[in-house]
Known about the structure:
Strand content: under 5%
Number of strands: 0
Low-confidence stretches: 116-121, 123-129, 347-351, 413-450
Number of domains: 1
Amino acid sequence: MDRKLTWYILAGMVLGVVVGYAVHIGIPASDPWFDYLGKTFKLLSDIFLNLIKLLVAPLVLSTIVVGIAHMGDSGALGRIGVRALAWFITASFVSIALGLLMVNLLQPGVGAPIPDAAEAVRMVGEVKKQDFWDFTLSIFPKNALEALATNNILQILVFAIFAGVALSAIGDRGAPLVRGAEALAEMMLQITGYVMRFAPFAVFGAIAKVVAASGLGILATYFELLIEFYLSLVLLWIILLTMGWIFLRQRIWQLIRYIREPLLLAFSTASSEAALPKMFEQLDRFGVPRRISGFMLPLGYSFNLDGSMMYMSFATIFIAQAYGIDLSIGTQVLILLTLMISSKGIAAVPRASLVVITGTLAQFGLPVEGVAIILAIDQFLDMGRTATNVVGNAVATSVITKWEGMLEVPEPADLERPHAPAHTPHHGTRGLDLRDTEDAGENKPAADHA
């Protein structure tokens, strides 16, 4: 089913473009049927995204709690956390710096069309700026149920860390809760399998809606920006995968094969949440223990949005170029540092990247209305940056696992199996002793590079 699903998703994307374009040229925007079809396309993608959001909170909570409870070593948890943050900060710096470099070299903003400013402000809405203190406070939940209800990944992460450490500390008395969390994780993954069968229809709806509303002409109007931004993303992919190859060697190609489905989902729906449950399953199959992926992925989706960070630096300078504003190297470095901090709160800010860009423009005295230039094709830009976020987090999680000596080798036939159960022992829900896992990694170093 997994291999067929990949083709079904690709077919949904192609069919979405064809049907969307047919609606765009065949039905006037004033016709009621145009509105009905647009709402129907949107309904397909919204149903899927709502179901995915239904899975995220319980899945993140259960996997983190189980992972930490089974880790049994607070030193290992701290070591993994430090290594993860070091990787995230490095990747963030590389992403933002590459965005600044490419936009200065290519200068796509020179001569870009400047749309109506009032319409831009209306579309973006109110800018909610978060300073360092507000963001820090927003990490810590005042109500665990509220954090779960709103899918606040950072707050769920904090609560789950406390719960996992506490269950590990109380030992056998917490065993029933740990087993309950394991069962909850397996149940959510089973539901994920059901929901994923609807993915091709959701992909079709998401693509068809955008093309029906804007047509293919919008791509021609902004062709230079799209090509140059995607070229920059390709360079970032090469850098990230090369960093991964340094640790994973030949297994980096295997990782790419495993994450193709979450990658396609993220690209077509422009939603990282849509790819998260499938990412857990595919990293299970790749050999990442659940206690590592359950900690790393939620942390990464809050702190390691490589594609979004490149986009924010690229878009900020692009807007300055469009208005003919020459920024000094010193100012651009300050923008880089500002984005390094403000982007870490992106998950808690409505309208995500656009709002952070708007806040950065205002902070440096740049025209806020410039967001209108990219607003028309933001959906297409968002597709690329979201897919890049998935690649960055898959590489980061796999590298940290390998760094810890805990990356396991899947069976050769695993890629061909229609379903790899998430509860098998090597997938990490059984709670192996860290010492045993490390010893196992030492006994087969050659296999790790197979």
